[in-house]
Write a structure and sequence with these properties.
It is a single chain. The protein has about 675 residues and is of the alpha/beta class. Among the domains are: about 130 residues, Glycosyltransferase, CATH 1.50.10; about 300 residues, Single-stranded right-handed beta-helix, Pectin lyase-like (Pectate Lyase C-like). The protein is built from 18 helices and 36 strands. The strands form 8 sheets. It has an 11-stranded parallel beta sheet with strand order 11-12-15-18-21-24-27-30-33-35-36. Strands 13-16-19-22-25-28-31-34 form an 8-stranded parallel beta sheet, with helices on one face. The chain has a 7-stranded parallel beta sheet with strand order 14-17-20-23-26-29-32. The longest helix has 24 residues.
Length: about 675
């Protein structure tokens, strides 16, 4: 082979390399181009040509339009058109990766080719992001604002998370971006980032009072869930919420609000996951999806719906007509195959959470907070989530109190949401748990029967708070089981004697309040108790005074299991019986055990109370052995003439026997003990 032949072969080889490089890039998507690993390719003429396109597409306002394949070769006319559009700010956006992807590309090429135009384009993009932010910390989908749903705070397709990740790299002064803004700009970026995180915390959706995840869009003024396109209805989003939580978990030394947001979101992910199904996809010869089907598969990994109902996490699907459907198969092929309806992104959240929670457990604000430090006073302890008290965890405080103390131990709990399962042990006697305010001091957990899964008695393990120590007192708290309508789920379980609960919200669904223990006497005053079925149940003697009993659905308020021979069971005095608007058929009670005793005195009964009042629970013998009675009640729901014939209307003299002293004050030895009066004065 002679010299000239070698030259020809070499030229052919070089030509083949150059001619194949461009098609390789053209076959990539713009997102794939942006994700090319930093290195020598960014020195190539090809990368420089793409950078020229990126600069041409950038508007003078700093942002870029979306859905542009910026690596495509532009004709002379196309370039002239883009130059003419420079002063037109319309269609600039952060949706579908726009603006932040272009900034990443400019940073990558600037590291290899320090052309000042790249730096200027990057910094102009950063100014665009800062300018587009709402005062409340959110970002719209388009800026300048575009009429319609585009003005909503947009988490859809991770738009706002992408922005905040850009800002975070700058605030943290990492090496991710080769272009470094001025110190003054970094300060502005820090303010914008903090406002964005605050917006995320404030938009986290509360489902029945409990924080869950986020929606794809939130109203820019009220923060409430908002709809976008016809098939993107207001809903909780498994996909968008995942990236939000990953961002929150990446923050060093997060605020207590951020910590709580993560814990509650992870608990929601666990609740909302779907087991036993997989999504099968079918492709044509070009690789395009032509069908999707959901298949039962017990071995399939967990997945999450893209859209879920706001009140119960039930998945739904929509076509362009905006009508909700219960399954993917019910919508047309175009939307079924052209949209992502399921996601596995929360798996990454749950994986990283296992490490993260060791550093930032619930209620903990900084890594170095010591949870077992000795309080200044063994008998007066403060719990505060911001670290200003003796403990940040209620259970930690309880665990470090003296056992069987000779004088009362008071634990003051500052405002906050405490995601804890709390037990006041049998040796934690003479303990008071006093919240800063009923509305803002919230103790919540979300165990329920099938989640516990310990057999037929799983109900009794589902409590949020369990009281086993005698002489316990609680006030100014919200005690909640946040699991939703999923079966038996106790909020407050009291199995102790001489227990006083005043001015508390006790929230749940089925089996909200378990008041139990043969011979135990308990006093609730000024409390709000809500639930669905049997939401006040148990064996104890309980006086509920000036309380509100709120029914969330057609069912039963009480399910007493009063032991045989016990003089008093559940006694309601001066209480209000209310219900949700659609609730129309509520029984006063049914006998969990056949000697049940329940009495309503001077109570106001809403129209939801059924005329017959009481139900025998398929136990004919209970009609002879229960004692269900009322006296001097009022309201539409009090219809004594229509009550079951086996219930009672007390006479005036009989009603006089139902004094606080007689119900609570006579102990097993016949001695008067007015223990409840000290709580009544609180």
């Amino acid at each position: 082979m002679n010299y000239f032949q070698n030259i020809v072969i070499a030229l052919v080889f070089i030509f083949s390399i150059n001619s194949s490089a461009q098609p390789q890039i053209l076959n990539k998507s713009w997102k794939e181009v942006v994700n090319i690993k930093e290195g020598t390719w960014f020195v190539s003429a090809e990368a420089k040509d793409i950078a020229e396109n990126v600069l041409l597409y950038q508007r003078n306002i700093g942002g870029w339009p979306k859905n542009i394949q910026m690596q495509k070769t532009l004709s002379k006319d196309e370039k002239q058109n883009l130059i003419a559009l420079k002063n037109d700010p319309n269609e600039t956006t952060t949706d579908n990766g726009a603006t932040f992807q272009q900034m990443i590309f400019l940073s990558k090429i600037y590291r290899q080719v320090p052309d000042e135009r790249y730096k200027k384009g990057f910094l102009l993009g950063l100014e665009y992001l800062l300018e587009a932010q709402y005062d409340n910390g959110g970002w719209p989908q388009f800026y300048p604002l575009k009429k319609g749903y585009y003005t909503h705070i947009t988490y859809n397709d991770d738009s706002m998370v992408n922005i905040l990740n850009v800002l975070k790299e700058i605030v943290d002064k990492t090496d991710f971006f080769s272009i470094k803004p001025s110190q003054e700009t970094v300060k502005r970026v820090k303010i914008a980032f903090d406002k964005g995180i605050d917006c995320i915390v404030k938009t986290q959706y509360k489902q029945n009072g409990v924080l869950t995840g986020w929606c794809a869009q939130h109203d820019e003024n009220t923060f409430t869930p908002a709809k976008a396109r016809a098939y993107e209805l207001a809903s909780l989003s498994g996909k968008e919420s995942a990236q939000i939580v990953l961002l929150l978990m990446s923050i060093e030394n997060p605020s207590n609000e951020v910590i709580n947001a993560v814990h509650f979101a992870v608990a929601w992910f666990d609740k909302a996951k779907i087991k036993g199904i997989r999504e099968d996809r079918f492709y044509d010869e070009s690789g395009k999806i032509v069908d999707k089907k959901i298949v039962l598969d017990t071995n399939a990994p967990d997945i999450w719906p893209r859209f879920m109902e706001l009140d119960n996490n039930i998945p739904f699907f929509c076509d362009r007509d905006g009508v909700k459907k219960g399954s993917l198969a019910e919508i047309g092929a175009e939307r079924r195959n052209g949209y992502s309806w399921y996601t596995n992104e929360p798996k990454e959240v749950l994986k990283k959470y296992e490490v993260w929670k060791e550093r930032y457990f619930i209620g903990k604000t900084k890594v170095d907070i010591k949870q077992n430090k000795v309080p200044k006073d063994d008998f007066y302890i403060t719990v505060a989530q911001d670290g200003s008290g003796d403990y940040t965890s209620i259970q930690d405080a309880i665990n470090n109190t003296p056992s069987f103390p000779y004088k009362r131990v008071t634990i003051v709990v500052k405002n906050g949401i405490y995601y804890e399962k709390i037990k006041i042990h049998e040796w934690n006697t003479n303990l008071s748990l006093i919240g800063e305010s009923k509305e803002k001091t919230i103790i919540t957990y979300d165990d329920y029967f099938s989640k516990i899964n310990l057999g037929r008695n799983s109900t009794f393990y589902t409590y949020t708070i369990l009281v086993e120590g005698d002489n316990f007192f609680a006030t100014n708290l919200t005690i909640q089981n946040s699991s939703g309508e999923v079966g038996q789920a106790i909020a407050l379980s009291i199995n102790a004697n001489k227990v006083g609960i005043t001015n508390c919200n006790i929230l749940g669904n089925q089996d909200t309040l378990y008041a139990t223990g043969e011979g135990n006497k308990q006093y609730l005053k000024g409390c709000y108790i809500e639930g669905t079925t049997d939401f006040v149940f148990g064996t104890a003697t309980v006086l509920l005074e000036n309380c509100t009993l709120h029914s969330l659905k057609n069912s039963y308020i009480t399910a007493a299991a009063t032991p045989e021979g016990t003089k008093y069971g559940f006694v309601f005095k001066n209480c209000k019986l209310t219900a949700d608007e659609k609730v129309t058929e509520v029984y006063l009670g049914r006998p969990w055990r056949i000697h049940a005793k329940t009495v309503f005195i001077n109570c106001e009964m809403g129209k939801q109370i059924k005329p017959e009042g009481w139900y025998n629970w398929f136990k004919p013998e209970a009609e002879k052995k229960t004692f269900y009675a009322e006296y001097n009640c009022s309201g539409y729901g009090f219809q004594p003439e229509k009550r079951t014939i086996w219930s009672h209307q007390l006479t005036k003299s009989e009603a006089k026997e139902y004094t606080n002293d007689s119900i609570l004050g006579i102990n097993s030895k016949g001695v008067t003990d007015k223990w409840y009066e000290k709580f009544d004065r609180k």
